Amino acid sequence: MSKYFTYILFFLILGFNHQVVAQAYHFVPQPESVSFSEEVFILDKNTKVVVPKKFRGVLIPYLAEKFHDDLGLNLTYSYRNPEKGEKHIQFKLDKRVSVKDEGYLLEVQPASIVVTAKDYGGLFNGFQTLRQTFPLENPGTVKLPAMTVKDNPRFAWRGIMLDVSRHFQPKEFILKHIDVLSSYKVNKFHWHLTDDQGWRIEIKKYPNLTEKGAWRADRTGVSWWQREKATAEEPKTVGGFYTQEDIKEVIAYAKVRNVEVIPEIDVPGHSKALVASYPHLFCYDEPDANFEVAVGGKAPDNAVCAGKDSTYEFLEGVIEEVAALFPSKYLHIGGDECNKSNWKKCPYCQGVKSENNLKDEEELQSYFIQKVHKIVKAQNKTMIGWDEILSGQGAPGATIMAWRRGDHNPQITAPQDGYPTIMTSYKYMYLSQVQGPTFMEPEGPKVVLPLSKVYGHEPIPEQLTPEEVNRVLGNEACLWGEFTPTQEHCEYMLYPRALASAEVSWSQPNVKDWKRFQTALEEWHFKRLDQEEVNYANSMFTVYASYALDQLKGEAHVYLNTETVGYDIFYTTGGEDPTVSSIKYEGNFIAAPKTPIKAGLFNKEGKLLGKITVIRLK
Ligand code: ACM
Ligand code: ZN
What sequence ranges are listed for the domain Beta-hexosaminidase bacterial type N-terminal (predicted)? Predict the structure, then answer.
């Protein structure tokens, strides 16, 4: 019997009590095992919260904030064990508990709630599961269902990447989303801090990186791909950067939320902002060279010179500061999509190439990566790179982010070649792609990545042996920033697909269930996101419409579709908006050419769930 049917059965058995249990049903990500009993724990202001002494400084303020914001409750907090008979919620560290790192046991009983884990991450994650049983309305005294949850992460790496170079997003935005994403057990925040269109991290040794490199000419309103290059004279008003103090604040805030922050400094390509700030790192002097921060599009000639010693000396200075600032053992150096056209014309690059018997520019890239790898290792960090760093000699000892698919299959070759690998498939995990019919979504790459496709992703390729599977550290969703100038738009692209990615990264495939997930979003998480003031997309409810014109008969065959299950499509053919009194879609139908079709998706209560799709047949 599937999990889903077990739940249904449980609702039926519980009858009137089902309201309490129905809330518990909405877990995202779905835990490994959940069992309910009929009893309840009454959470009210007389409940004492007990935390391990060594975590009291971080955990108490966090828990106090959440109990207050979620439920309006000011509880008492302590690291001392509860008195006999005292109603309590206890967070307990126990090295013997049979869960993995970051896993937990959550036991809700009438007199107590106990979260037991081996580590801080487990206690934090157990609390997030408990929070998902909180009602969203009528906070105050609440009844929580008695239950036992045993839960473990599928992957140790459950990441989200945000590109803040193409469009800078302020520190407050970063903090907000670390808070929200961590409540879905995301534990890695990969911060893509540099690219052609802006350098976003203060480096004290090289102030020009942010004085010049963080700012670009304003091309707002012009399509990203059609922007005219900036001139030296025009004002540079678009951008921003994080000071090292900002970054420390983000790291500390993330640590409380069990999130590790991984910086990315993208070299040797994607470096136009860097060479604009320090032109001597470019390959050669050209009288008409443009050393302005890119304003959009692709920036040719964006690579730093791979042949000059000064490049490596400079990068050493950058990496030293970045390594000192970020406590993560990882440091991401990019390595992707390097345009090598200037290397081919550069006397320094060509000199190094022949001195080292390098066959071509691919091998020169490999030479570059190996030199940078040495610098990273000297800082006691593990280098991460996009999968292009596998080319040429590769980079033994590095960790790979496998993003390409098709001509390259790093999701298979990297673990086969012994590399720890993080799956970031551009086909399933690039949240910059639009998530509904393109004509109904904001501008973006014209590829549709609907929520269900993200949710359905299986990060482990079936070709891998168990030993190779062990090298897969996890999964990460990436939001590239070309088309997301505003915070609202970033949120729209991130949510709810980041929640689907969170479940892909946390839950075992056998507990995943699309219908349960989409229902959980509709009934609980969208309301929670509303409360967090997150501008999520409801594109999963959009009706996809298509038709085939039968010219022989002069009629159109219309097809309506939705990625969701359990909801009904209603449509009209006379131009009016559909309601549940309109025609229910039961299968493709025939309509006359020029008919206006309007369709919407409705839940059982007759509520329109998404936007109305409007098409006019030709
Ligand atoms: C990438 O998408 N260039 C990593
Ligand atoms: Zn060069």
Answer: 27-151
